[in-house]
Specification:
alpha+beta; Nuclear Transport Factor 2, Chain: A; about 140 residues; 4 strands
């Protein structure tokens, strides 16, 4: 029940952030051929793992830069409370959905594996951090 509650809270936070986000331009998302968002997502996950929540703020879209360190910490703490301490990043994959590029960073945690999701706006700025998909051992991980 606790895991479901934490997942629900993370989802609600993601929806709230999305609804507050504004973007300029045409709102069209194209693929990221240079892998810039993948690199940024990995940097963000590393900063979260190092508890450097203030440094994560600089990646946010202008409309969301006011997100406090405490808010970012609460998101990460929700992930950690569900999966245990962060151990290692394994790989990434991406998809485009509703104007966002979503980078899934598969990570190993004390209690298993999960994707940390890092979503970028059409301008390539951080919009949402969350988690989804818990694994015993994902197919993409070789220990």
């Amino acid at each position: 029940m606790r895991k479901l509650t934490l997942l629900f809270i993370t989802t609600i936070l993601a929806i709230a952030i999305t609804s507050c986000s504004s973007s300029s331009g045409n709102g069209q998302m194209t693929s990221d051929p240079n892998g810039t968002n993948i690199k940024l997502a990995k940097e963000i996950v590393q900063l979260l793992a190092e508890n450097k929540f203030g440094e994560v703020q600089k990646y946010y879209d202008e409309g969301l830069k006011s997100q406090s360190e405490g808010f970012i910490k609460d998101i990460w703490d929700g992930i950690i409370s569900q999966y245990g301490s962060f151990k290692k990043e394994y790989n990434t994959r991406t998809e485009i959905s509703q104007g966002y590029e979503i980078v899934y960073v598969t990570c190993g945690f004390e209690k298993g594996y999960a994707d940390v999701t890092v979503q970028f706006s059409s301008l390539g700025k951080l919009a949402i951090i969350g988690s989804m998909t818990s694994y015993s051992v994902p197919e993409s991980v070789s220990e």
